[in-house]
Each structure stands twice: as structure tokens, then as C-alpha cells.
């Protein structure tokens, strides 16, 4: 059976960084991801706040990090971890995937999150037929067409700007009376003259074979308005992936995120957590910092 000092589950920015730091410490390490390395980071159209780069896409940065990580650890993409079993041996954890079984002295959970849904009528029906959660994946198809972007955080505004630059006619819709995104992004939305509709919630997505309109409800008045559109892009937050954490008995907060201390340790010995699955700021650079801390904590605990 393959045995490792550290197994990192998830190859997002945090997981890749953990792999880099773990390998440079001289330990034997493995990163496993059910998809391609990068996770949701692959979908970021453009970042202007990652140190060292004036502008860089998430996909480009992921590829740079992946190239560096594989010099320091094993990386298994498209392999799903199905079960983690605690044991009393030196290799305290048995990790079963859909392809193989591994043992490890420590576990770093970097399982990330997935797109939160609106849960409105028509959302599932028109997914892939005008409803999308990824501007970089599907934006090209909407150049020159009318679309709405639903959300008010950094990701929603970044994707609205990206879609606008592709030539789409974008309307940005948010249920609150002001955006939660960084002020700089809000200024960029104004400068780009992107139409915004605040205090408004989505009630239904309508169409025939494809999306044709969206039904909106004003939060203050309750008035319903149907707006013609060719596409609906949704960016309203993320759901943490905590199935494996729950399996291990790791403590979660009220929102379902993993609770960690300053060393990225969970309540379970030799289990650490990093990135979007944890309590804290959801930013690429934060996940990277947490990955470095977790790998160092795991290394130190192995030595003791």
C-alpha cells in the first residue's frame, strides 16, 4: 500500500501551496483532487490583487502553481476520495479513493466549495441552456447578447466586467441595497457603465428550449418585473465541501465551515484544513498562506 507523511485532499490554490511547502520540508506527500487542479480558481477571469502580478487569470496562475507543486509532491487529478478511516498505526489514516488506497500520517483537508444556487424555478431546467455559474467557461457564447449577472460580491462583479469586455450587454442584479464587493470593483462597474438593479431578487427563470427571460421581485415593494434575457450567470456564494470532515468528526461552525486554530489544526489530531472549506476570508492568497501554515504544522507534528 502507498504510504505518505502528508496527504492533501484538494488541489486548489491552498492545496497546491501545501504540497510545495510539504515537499520542500523533505516529507513524502500526495495531493488528490476529484477534478483538475485549481478547483474554482480555474474560473477566475482576471485577478488584480495577487502580489507579483498586475493582472493574471486564475487558470494561468493555477498552471504555474501546478508546475511548481509536482516538483515537490505527487499529484493525482480526477481521483475522488470516498472514505478516510482513522487507525491506531503510525500511518493514522487510510484514504480510499475510486482508484486506489493510501495510508498517511497526517491529512490536510483542502476540499474547497461549490457554487451556491438560487434554488428558483427554472434554474435546473435551463442549466447549460442559458443558466451558467462560470463566466470564463460560457461567456464566449454570449458576446453581443443580453445577459444578467446575479450577485453582489467580488466574484459577481469580476465576472460582470469580464462578460462586458467580451461584448455582452450585462445587467447586474443584487438583492441588497449595496454591493459587498471591493470598492475598486464597484468603481470599475460604474466606469464600464454596466446597468445595475439593487434590492431585487430572482423569482423565476423562464424560456422555451433556451432562457428567454427572468422574473424579478423588488424586495421593498414586492413588485414583479419580467426582463428579457438570453442568459443568466449566477454568483451568489459557495457551499463548503465537508463530507470528509464530517466523516472524521471534524467540528464545523453554524455555516457549515470547518473550524481551525491559527496553525490550521482541527479538533481531530493530525487533521488540518485550509481554504474555502474553512471559516475565514475567501481569497486566493489567504488559501495559499493557510496551505503553507498547515504543511508546516503537519511537518512539526510528525517530528514530535
Quick description:
The protein is of the alpha/beta class.
At the fold tier of CATH, the topology name of the largest domain is FAD/NAD(P)-binding domain
Broad CATH class of the largest domain: Alpha Beta
Q: Can you tell me the CATH architecture of the largest domain? A: 3-Layer(bba) Sandwich
Secondary structure tally, helices? 7
| CATH homology-level superfamily of the largest domain | FAD/NAD(P)-binding domain
Run of helices and strands: EHEHEEEEEEHEHEHEEEEEEHEH
- Find the structural class using helix and strand composition: alpha/beta
Please describe the biggest sheet, giving its number of strands, its sense, and whether it closes into a barrel. 7 strands, mixed
Report how far the terminal alpha carbons are from each other: 24 Å
Domains counted in the coordinates: how many? 2
Strand content range: 25-35%
The low-confidence runs, each spanning 5 or more residues with pLDDT under 50, are: none
Task: Classify the helix fraction into a percent range.
Answer: 10-25%
Radius of gyration over all CA atoms, rounded: 21 Å
Would you report the number of β strands? 17
Give the mean pLDDT.
Answer: 94
What does the overall shape look like? elongated
